[in-house]
Amino acid sequence: MSFGNATVPFYATDREKLYTLVLLVVMQLRTKNLHLSFGSDRFQLLSELDLSCNQLTGQIPHELGDLHGLRSLNLSHNHLNGLIPESFQKLQNIESLDISNNNLSGQIPLELQDLHSLAVFNVSYNNLSGRALEKGQFCTFDGSSYKGNPYLTWDKSLRPIYK
Q1: What is the rounded distance in angstroms from the CA atom of residue 42 to the CA atom of residue 95?
Q2: How many CB atoms lie within 10 A of CB 88?
Q3: Do 90 and 105 form a contact (C-beta atoms < 8 A)?
Q4: What's the pLDDT tens digit per position in 13-69?
Q5: Can you list the pairs that 21-26 forms with residues at least 24 positions away whose Cβ atoms lie under 8 Å?
Q6: Beta-strand pair 2-3/6-7
Q7: What is the DSSP string of the chain?
Q8: Domain ranges of the chain
Q9: What is the pLDDT of residue 14?
Q10: How does the record classify its membrane topology (predicted)?
C-alpha cells in the first residue's frame, strides 16, 4: 500500500477491479495487504475508511483530508508517526476520527476545532504534546480520548479519564 511514506506489499489477485470502484462508499481493510493511492477522485464518495490493525508505517498522508465525504476514519493500531495532518480540517462531515495507538507526535492541530460534526475522537496512546483542544466538540470528549500521551495536558477536572 502506498500510504504517504508508508508502504505495505500488495498481494491481491485483481488489482484493477479495486481501482474501478468509483461508487465505493465504505472501505474496511483490516489486516489486509493492498496498494492504494488516495490522490485521485476515485474515493470522493467514500464515507467510511477503516485501515486499523494493518501495521502501517510512515506519516498519515495529507490527501486523506481531501476525502470530503468521510464520516468515519479509523487508522488506529498501526505504527504511523509524524504529525496529525492539518488537512483533516477539511473533513467537515467527519463524525468519528480514531488515530489511537500509533506513534504520532506534535500537537493536535487547532483547526480541528472547526469539525462540528465530530462525535467520536480518539488520539490515545501516541506521543502527542501540548494542550488538548477545548473548543467546539472537543469540550465534550473525556480524558479517555487522550490517555497514554505523557506530554499532552488537558483539564482533568472537566474531562476525567473513564476506564
Answers
A1: 21
A2: 22
A3: no
A4: 444 544 444 444 444 444 445 444 555 566 677 899 999 999 999 999 999 999 999
A5: none
A6: antiparallel
A7: -EETTEE-----S-HHHHHT-TT--EEE-TT-------SSGGGTT--EEE-TTS--EEEPPGGGGG-TT-SEEE--SSEEEEPPPGGGGG-TT--EEE--SSEEEEPPPGGGGG-TT--EEE--SSEEEEE---SGGGGG--GGGTTT-TEEE--TTTSPPP-
A8: 2-153
A9: 47
A10: Single-pass membrane protein
pLDDT, tens digit (0-9, with 9 covering 90-100), for 112-148: 999 999 999 999 999 999 999 988 889 899 889 999 9
Can you tell me the mean pLDDT for 76-94?
A: 97
Question: What local confidence, expressed as pLDDT, does residue 155 receive?
Answer: 75
State the cell numbers at 2.
502506498
CA neighbor of 8 nearest in space, from 51, 80, 57:
57
The CATH superfamily holding the domain 2-153 is Ribonuclease Inhibitor (3.80.10.10)
Report the C-alpha gap between 30 and 48 in whole angstroms: 13
Please report, as a single letter, which amino acid is at residue 110. Answer: L
